Amino acid sequence: MHVVVNAAMSADGKLSSRRREQIAISGEADFDRVDRLRADSDAVVVGVGTVLADDPHLIVKDEILREKRRDNDRPANPARVVVDSSGRTPTDAAILDDAATTYVCLSEAASVERRAALADRAELVTAGDERVDLLRAFATLQEQGLEQVMVEGGGELIFSLFDAGLVDELRVFIGPKIIGGRDAPTLADGEGFVTEFPSLDLESVDRLDDGVVLTWCVADR
Ligand code: NAP
Asked: Residue 129: pLDDT band by 50, 70, 90 thresholds?
């Protein structure tokens, strides 16, 4: 499995404001880049915090890219994955519509009621006692044939994926805005590293819209 984390952040490293509302950080050229990356992926993953904040659909927007996928005997859209320990994903979330297969990764803490509500609209994967065990959940996704995986946030999930050693590549658009706020989500939140820090090798720097895309590979992978 190859895991690419993709995000857009402000010049001061924030993914959104302290209100956790979606903010336009990038422009049209970056949306197209993200769409191509989605189209190259078998699955797009988000945390439930992102589902609750943004209600993302996570489909490929460009019909030509969807057509190319069909021509290659792939579904028009990549699978969608929500990491959601207790099953908080609303049943009317856009990510649960029938545009693509959706996996909801739960922990044992998810109630029977939430499982029943979600099972009509998603494939359920259970891994971990209280929180989703990402290593086990991703192993199950790989068994389902999901090899090229793109992660679209948010900061809590991205931190945990680095912590679990699951990230191969980081692509980040840095846009021309200052968002600020000590409680605003950043690229990697969670508890933070204190002794050993994942390190990255810079692969490329590309100017795009009014910002820059940095592509990093995780060192020693
Ligand atoms: P998140 O990372 O999307 O989701 C975090 C939630 O996932 C946790 O609170 C937890 O909820 C669940 N989870 C289950 N197992 C986990 C594990 N092992 N590790 C980590 N999380 C686990 O939420 P977020 O950090 O609050 O980010 C949402 C914010 O980011 C929003 O403001 C959104 O607009 C922004 N965002 C920005 C971008 C961008 O590119 N600029 C992209 C995406 C999101 P449970 O305990 O209930 O399971």
From this structure: very high
DSSP string, 182-204: TTS-BSS-TT--SS----EEEEE
CA angle, residues 208, 77, 74, in degrees to nearest 5: 115
pLDDT digits (tens, 9 = 90+) for 50-71: 999 999 999 999 999 999 999 9
pLDDT score for 220: 81
pLDDT for residue 221: 77
Helix, strand or coil, per DSSP, at residue 123: strand
CA atoms of 95 and 102, how far apart (whole Å): 7
pTM, entire model: 0.98
Half-sphere exposure of 16 (CA within 13 A, CB side): 14
- Count of residues for the chain? 221
Q: Which residue's alpha carbon is nearest to atom 30 within ligand 1?
A: 154
CA-based nearest residue to 213, from 158, 171, 152, 178 = 171
Residues touching ligand 1 (Cβ under 6 Å) are 7-9, 15-16, 20, 22, 25, 46-50, 53-54, 83-86, 88, 131-132, 134, 152-157, 160, 185, 189
Residue from 44, 108, 157 whose mutation best tests the ligand 1 pocket (most atoms within 8 A of CB): 157
Share of the chain above pLDDT 70, in %: 100
